[in-house]
Design brief:
Helix content is 39%, strand content 15%. It has 413 residues and is α/β, with parallel strands linked by helices. The chain has 2 domains: 5-35 and 299-411, Aspartate Aminotransferase, domain 1; 40-280, Aspartate Aminotransferase, domain 2 (3-Layer(aba) Sandwich), CATH 3.40.640.10. The strands form 4 sheets. It has a 7-stranded mixed beta sheet, with helices on both faces. Helix 5 links the parallel strand 5 and strand 6 (137-141). 48% of the residues are buried.
Length: 413
């Protein structure tokens, strides 16, 4: 099968936007992707036809229940989960992580240990750091100069007192893909819980929670062409006994035990549509098979564009690229760099004026910002490849960075 990017682009209304005469090119996917028409229509259809609360004795409520069930089934297929009952929803990944941390904090004793990493987004650091309030000792694993978890330091941070290890699948800032197989083996060897942030990984790679053998996994639909909804996978039996924040009228069992208040039903309809959109790229007899083949095509397409971008930037003077190089293990199609002598926010603004939407800053990965001493430069310029980006857009971006670089050289000299 070939990847028909120009056909797919027709599904995204926002891609037709222009900025000061320039066609908009959305390289801001790591902060949230654009949304296809199918997702927009699914959300609108819910409000137009069956807007109601759940569990009522009338048709629109029954249809709302069906939407929730269908979304759990779709999310389970996306993550390779054994049952829809292992899937819970929340406002976003951060909210779910804090809810999970509060519940787990009630099982923590003074002196218990928690391991996080310097590579992670604050949403997978801050919630676990709150466990220090219960007397836990929180260790943060160092990162290497090429943006990977320092595995020797990781091993040194583990002990028989370690109860929780929270790591990311992939860095939202650098694109690093972590060695989850080794991390899992080391974590389970000491009977600690493994909690995985897959927010940046989910848009680019297939996920199999059974193969990962994680205890909890979190991701966000707005990173894979859907609306703002957080998704939590919990290993069977774990959520049922956790002392979560819940009302007494709330169901005690998973997946409801961690879901507080009325869900955003319209957004859940959009999540299903987003997952089905990715599946439609692939082929197969089941939704899971379609997702696996679809994500493989997406990965290959995005990887080729990211390599082109990486190679182009690598050939420019005064450009420093951060993170592992391509060809040295699995890597997400996210490239972050700095331009010598320029503030990264200013670089992002320059590109934005030319219809090239990139991010500048720390992207909530604060420890990377601090460890690499990027404060004076305003952090990094981050470029993310999504399934709707094109080779022509990458060429435009490279030309714009080259032109900016030449302007900088002229100014400096």
């Amino acid at each position: 099968m070939s990847f028909a990017v120009m056909e797919l682009r027709k599904d995204f209304p926002s891609l037709s936007r222009t900025v000061s005469g320039y066609q908009a090119a959305y390289f801001d996917g790591p902060g949230g992707t654009q949304v296809p028409r199918q997702v927009i229509q699914a959300i609108s259809h819910y409000y137009e036809t069956c807007n109601a609360n759940a569990h009522g004795p009338f048709v629109t409520s029954a249809e709302t229940d069906q939407i929730v069930d269908r979304t759990r089934e779709a999310a389970a297929a996306l993550l390779g989960a054994p049952s829809p009952a292992s899937i819970s929803f929340g406002a976003n990944m951060t909210s779910l992580a804090f809810a999970l941390a509060r519940a787990l904090s009630r099982t923590i004793a003074p002196g218990d240990e928690v391991v996080i990493t310097d590579l992670d987004h604050e949403a997978n650091r801050g919630p676990w750091q709150t466990l220090a309030e219960r007397g836990a000792i929180v260790h943060s694993v160092a990162i290497t100069v090429d943006g990977r978890i320092d595995m020797e330091d990781f091993k040194s941070k583990l002990s028989p007192k370690t109860k929780i290890v929270a790591v990311g699948c992939s860095s939202n800032s650098l694109g690093t893909v972590n060695d989850l197989a080794t991390i899992r083996e080391l974590t389970h060897a000491i009977d600690a819980l493994l909690i995985v942030d897959a927010v940046h990984f989910a848009p680019h790679f297939p996920i199999d929670v059974i193969e990962l053998d994680c205890d909890f996994l979190l991701c966000s639909a707005y990173k894979f062409y859907g609306p703002h909804v957080g998704i939590l996978y919990a290993r069977e039996g774990l959520l049922d006994t956790l002392p979560t924040d819940k009302l007494r009228a709330q169901d005690d069992a998973a997946p409801y035990r961690i879901e507080t208040g009325t869900p955003n039903f319209a957004a859940l309809a959009g999540v299903t549509a987003a997952i089905e959109y990715i599946a439609a790229v692939g082929v197969g007899a089941t939704l899971r098979q379609q997702l696996l083949t679809g994500m493989a095509l997406v990965h290959d397409y995005e990887d080729a564009l990211a390599r082109k971008l990486y190679d182009g930037l690598s050939q420019m003077d005064h450009i420093q690229i951060f993170g592992q190089p391509f060809g040295d293990g699995l890597r997400a199609p996210t490239i972050s760099f700095t331009v010598a002598g320029m503030n990264s926010g200013d670089v992002a603004a320059y590109l934005g004026e030319r219809g090239l939407f990139v991010w500048g800053g720390h992207f909530y990965a604060m420890r990377i910002y601090e460890v690499y001493q990027l404060e004076e430069q305003g952090g990094l310029v981050r470029v993310g490849i999504s399934l709707y980006n094109t080779e022509e857009e990458v060429d435009r971006l490279l030309e714009a960075v080259k032109a900016l670089n030449e302007t900088r050289t002229t100014t400096v000299s």
